[in-house]
Amino acid sequence: MNVQEIRHPLIRHKLGLMRRAEISTKNFRELAQEVAALLTYEATQDLAVESYTIDGWCGDVEVEKLSGKKITVVPILRAGLGMLDGVLSLIPSAKVSVIGLARNEETLEADTYLEKLVGDINQRMALIIDPMLATGGSMVATIEMLKKAGARDIRALVLVAAPEGIERVNRSHPDVCIYTASVDQRLNEQGYIIPGLGDAGDKIFGTK
Ligand code: PRP
Ligand code: URA
């Protein structure tokens, strides 16, 4: 399985706070961005760096900078926006490509309402962000749009993942690694993750 469950103590602590039924919109938002930043740190461990020399306080110093492929962050609207600032806090110059999807609550399939990708996506690592990987329909639809546009190195950052969603993404796109704060137990009859976080979009936007 191409999935990494990041069991860092800070992530486990923050996710525990996010699972409280009575959490405020403010707290949920803050924690979603913080966990997103921690997942970004893990998902970018293998970025290439190159050495160069700078004029330091005591003379020439050899330092390093990121080299090679650049990054585009791909939030899946709307809940993915709740992770964007956390990712950009670590990669401030990343370009943002936006995919608008809404899960049809009857069929659980994803309907696309927006696709606005950076032009040179074939030269960038794509970091998809969405708090929830449930059936996997939204993630698979997004990966297919990105691949059609030329993206080759695609990674997914999700706060919580259901085994069913991981299985679906892995079956269709085994090259895409999923970084998650938690692999939860299962989906319920309505396609919600158990124990999960409830409706992440509503919690981030305060709509319910
Ligand atoms: C949620 C979530 C994912 C999707 C996951 O979005 O943010 O995008 O559902 O479900 P899936 O794995 O079964 O496709 P939703 O469609 O509720 O829209 P929202 O972000 O606008 O709240
Ligand atoms: N979307 C959510 O917001 N939560 C779930 O548990 C499943 C899909």
SSE-based structural type: alpha/beta
The average pLDDT is 96
Total number of domains: 1
Share of β-strand residues: 25-35%
**Helicity range:** 25-40%
GO biological process, one term: uracil salvage
Function: Catalyzes the conversion of uracil and 5-phospho-alpha-D-ribose 1-diphosphate (PRPP) to UMP and diphosphate.
Domain Phosphoribosyltransferase: 7-207
Binding site for uracil: 193, 198-200
Helix/strand layout:
Blueprint: E1 3-5, H1 9-18, H2 25-43, E2 49-56, E3 59-66, E4 70-77, H3 81-90, E5 95-96, E6 98-103, E7 110-116, E8 124-129, E9 132-133, H4 137-148, E10 153-161, H5 163-172, E11 177-183, E12 186-187, E13 193-194, H6 200-205
Parallel strand pairs: 1-11, 4-5, 4-6, 4-8, 8-10, 9-10, 10-11
Antiparallel strand pairs: 2-3, 6-7, 12-13
Helix pairs in contact: 1-2, 2-3
The structure holds 1-O-pyrophosphono-5-O-phosphono-alpha-D-ribofuranose and uracil.
1-O-pyrophosphono-5-O-phosphono-alpha-D-ribofuranose binds at residues 76, 78-79, 101-103, 108, 110, 130-139, 165, 191, 200-201.
What does this structure look like?
The chain is built from 6 helices and 13 strands. The strands form 3 sheets. Strands 1, 4, 5, 6, 7, 8, 9, 10 and 11 form a 9-stranded mixed β-sheet that branches. A two-stranded antiparallel ribbon has the order 2-3. The chain is globular and about 65 Å long. With 208 residues, the chain is α/β, with parallel strands linked by helices. The two termini are 35 Å apart. Helix 2 (25-43) packs across helix 3 (81-90). The protein has a single domain, classed as Rossmann fold. Residues 76, 78-79, 101-103, 108, 110, 130-139, 165, 191, 200-201 line the site of 1-O-pyrophosphono-5-O-phosphono-alpha-D-ribofuranose (PRP). One of its GO terms (biological process) is UMP salvage. Its EC number is 2.4.2.9. Uracil binds at residues 193, 198-200. 5-phospho-alpha-D-ribose 1-diphosphate binds at residues 78, 103, 130-138, 199.
